[in-house]
Write a structure and sequence with these properties.
With 65 residues, the protein is an all-alpha fold. It has one domain. Helix content is 57%, strand content 0%. It is elongated and about 45 Å long.
């Protein structure tokens, strides 16, 4: 499993994830748990949805195979 999430992508994922979680808490809804998905993918550095589309935002690993 090679990292395919770059630095800017990680920051965006964490911010979006925290917003979704905060909304879930505010709205008292379980839907806020969906915000954990972008947070986890940012912390792990790998997004499984990028694989079939061959997307790689990690510039340091883009040239490596």
């Amino acid at each position: 499993m090679q990292s395919n999430v770059g630095k800017t992508d990680k920051i965006i994922r964490i911010v979006v994830g925290l917003v979704i979680v905060a909304y879930g808490i505010f709205a008292e809804s379980w839907w806020g748990l969906i915000g954990l998905i972008p947070i986890v993918t940012a912390l792990v550095g790998f997004c499984p949805l990028y694989v079939p589309f061959k997307i790689n935002t990690n510039k340091s690993a883009a040239g490596k195979k």
